[in-house]
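Sharing a chain and its predicted structure for anyone who wants a worked example. Both blocks are below, sequence first, tokens second.
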Amino acid sequence: MPHLRPFEPRDYQHFVALDLDTEADALGEITDAERALFRTRWPAMLAMRGVSQAGFVAPGAQLFILEGDDNSFLGHLWLTEKVDGLGQRVLEVTTMGLVREARGQGLGRLLMNKAETEAQAKGIGHIELSVAGNNRRARDLYRDLGYDTVRRTMRKKLRQ
């Protein structure tokens, strides 16, 4: 049975690879050069947010690793407590990811149930997350779990 545990330095390479793939997929159609640039910059961006080979040190945040029975890396759940524009405490699903082989097995639900359990334990009444418009599987999961769309961001790439 897969289980969750806190992030450890030994998880860094697996975490970065999965988080990078998840974020790169969310970018949609970009050039190979843009994708390569994104890949080289992503570890530094994560380091600025508290994730490095030395560990996880993001204030107000938790990073959980999903492991299989054989201790294989299956995914992660990064939660960050913040205050919204109305002054309400919110638990943000900063990033969540599952390796391709683990998808379609109900593990996304397991991760989201963990997020809800953590929010309730902290006395937080709202969870929020961002999901790429092209990620239909994730949008369907969140909708099925009772999440509503509250804002939408659109972007246009201009020719140069």
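Comments welcome. Residues 3 and 142 are 21 Å apart (CA to CA).
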